[in-house]
Amino acid sequence: MEMNARTPRRVEFVLDLICVHSYIALTRWTRAAKRLRDSGAEVEVVFLPYQLAPETPATGRPLFEVHKEAFGEEKARAIAQDTGFGAEDGLRLNFERAVYTNTFEAHRLLADAAGQGLGEAMAERLFRAYLTDGLNIGDPETLARLADEIGVVRSEDGGTALRAELDRVRTLGISSVPLVLFDGGPALGGAQPEAVYFQALTTHPALSPRG
Question: What is the C-alpha separation between 128 and 23, in angstroms, rounded?
Answer without folding.
Answer: 8
